[in-house]
Amino acid sequence: MSSPVRGAAAEAPIKVGHYASLTGKDASFGIVSRKGILLAVEEINAAGGLLGRPVEYLVEDIQSKAGESATAVKKLLSRDKVVAVLGGNPSSNSLEAAPLCQRAGIPMMAISSTSPKVTAVGDCIFRICFIDPFQGAVLGRFARESLHARRLALLTPMTPYGVGLAAELRKKFTALGGELVAEQKYAEGDKDFKAQLTALRASQPDVIAVPGYYTEAALICRQARELGLTSIFIGGDGWEAPQLTALGGPAVEDTYYSTGFSADNSAPAVREFVRKYRHRWDDEEPDSTAALGYDAMMLYADAIRRAGTTDRVALRAALAATKDFAGVTGRITIDGERNATKSAVMMRVKAGRMEFVETVDP
Amino acid sequence: MSEFLQQLLNGLSLGAIYALIALGYTMVYGVLRFINFAHSDVFMVGAFLGYYLGKFIPENTVGGGLLILLGAMLGCAVLGMTIERLAYRPLRGAATLNVLITAIGVSLLLEYSGQVFFGATPRTFPAVFPSANFTLGGLVISSNQVVVIVVTALLMVGLQFIVYRTKIGTAMRAVSLNPKAAQLVGVNNDIVISFTFGLGSALAGAGGILYALNYPSIDPLMGVMPGLKAFVAAVLGGIGNIPGAALGGLLLGTVETFVNGSQWSTYKDAIAFAILIIILLFRPAGLLGKASVEKV
């Protein structure tokens, strides 16, 4: 059954594992992060691989289900023996997978999990995106200073991501002199929000923040307009998906969200990445999750080159020492908590498209 | 006050959908004494039929909307009768447990075939009816809420008429009372049971369209939660009893909405189900059900 081996292929490939929802309600994040990572892997291999070895990319679909992240990562670690793990998207997925990577001593790079708890799991857990405190603070500042809101209401999903973001948003908004007038909660997967929105309507907020994901956010905006609510809706990077406008239609017009990347950014590195991505993926425009996936893989490649080996201890040390890595989502420095320090951008939905509003620095 | 009325309206429109699905559970139970767990998935298929029909029929017109509603009801009726013919009829006369387990099997089959054929990614349901909002004092009423409540009320009246005023309805009640005796007096049980499934599934199809109209993100597992709630509503009202299913659905929808609008929204299912347990403690046969002794 063995096939003849020759040249560079004789070198065993460097295996990197990725766990993501390629199906189910979070699929849009998983699919684009896969596209971003794959673009990076192909680029690395076309340039001769890493340390003379090709990179092999393995992906496990966690189907947007609780519990699947742990199973998928167990498979990647014990069956496939990967040297590095990429993922996940929602913080809840990363929190499931992180203890397993930490125990195995294999580095994990969370792609868009913004809860501070993720990297607190241990010294092998890193992240490429910004964290909730920062994103929450950005939203709080934006609501208070750019939208001039005085009265804020929160509609928080009961997820680590939502709760973490809401706490920081509230803190920043009230510190800047605003008032939190009401808070309501919902469970992920809920479809009826009219009860909560009716309760919020009574407190007449200027801005309603929904720190959840796009499916719920779009349904919330629709139902809010049906109830005659005219407040401005804002959210975090969980909103970023084409489904937001497909599902929300006119109801999500003039809503705002924060994210790590905008394809409208005119920086040359971003322009080049957008061109390559569009070329590879049928003219699709990359969003921040795609860019973060690309950056995560490129950062691993950079760390492996700097370490000169795929040994887990050396690789971990090289990742932790990352300083001013030029990624497409900004200059990335890994701090003492293994979080990436970088800038955020605010986006607005206008005529069914996402447009760039402003950049906010940490 | 206006907040209370608004929540009541929200609750009634949610409850009306639960009621519509609960009617299907209760009818099949009334005639065959078993819970058709595949009912909630027929509901899902109804929504998807509407989604695909929406591609051929112009959106945003009352006529087109009604056409989609009828098409989905018809499709679901055929599906329900097929399921009965292929999965349940061969087991007629077998222990109830066997049929119950088959029903769970059919439910899983529909859910996961749905993932294969429709894909697991949520789809956006088209706006099949024109929508508008009306303001009445502090009360905002959306046309979708009105459509849900009106369609549910009409279907319920129609159902009551079929069961109590037509020949086939009389036959249904006869089969429910005593299938052997019904057969002896010349009722064709197969046709009656097939009709019951068709009717119940048509209601599920209508429920699917109305649900998707209000919550326009549809996926193959969308039936699970509303199906469970509707089942609870049917038990709450007294399973086998048609007005009971309606009452149970409205009650459950209203309680859920009021809890959702309060500080305890994350406990909404816990509170709704606790109320169910308390009611069943005092009225084991449900609100409108008649207590009967099961003959073993």
Textual characterization of the structure:
- The complex is a heterodimer of chains A (362) and B (296).
- Chain A has 362 residues and is an alpha/beta fold.
- Chain A has two domains: 7-130 and 266-342, Rossmann fold; 133-259, 3-Layer(aba) Sandwich (Rossmann fold).
- Chain A has eleven helices and 15 strands.
- In chain A, helix 1 crosses helix 10 (288-307), helix 7 (214-226) runs parallel beside helix 8 (242-248) and helix 10 (288-307) packs across helix 11.
- The termini of chain A are far apart.
- In chain A, 58% of the residues are buried.
- Mean pLDDT of chain A is 90; it is low at 1-9.
- Chain B is mainly α and 296 residues long.
- Chain B has one domain.
- Chain B has a two-stranded antiparallel sheet. A two-stranded antiparallel sheet of chain B has the order 2-3.
- In chain B, a hairpin with a 2-residue loop joins strand 2 (133-136) and strand 3.
- In chain B, helix 1 (2-32) packs antiparallel against helix 8 (189-214) and helix 3 (62-88) crosses helix 8 (189-214).
- The radius of gyration of chain B is 19 Å and the shape is globular.
- The A-B interface holds A 23-25, 27-28, 63-64, 158, 184-187, 189, 191-192, 194-196, 198-199, 201-202, 215, 218-219, 222, 226-228, 243, 246-247, 249 and B 3, 6-7, 10-11, 14, 115, 119-122, 124, 127, 131, 133, 135, 140, 142, 144, 214-217, 219, 225, 256-262, 265-266, 268.
Task: Kindly list the characteristics that best describe this protein.
heterodimer, A: 362 residues, alpha/beta, Rossmann fold, 2 domains, seven-stranded mixed sheet, five-stranded parallel sheet, 11 helices, globular, disordered N terminus, B: 296 residues, mainly alpha, two-stranded antiparallel ribbon, two-stranded antiparallel sheet, 71% helix
Task: Briefly say what this structure is.
With 362 residues, chain A is an alpha/beta fold. Helices cover 41% and strands 20% of the residues of chain A.
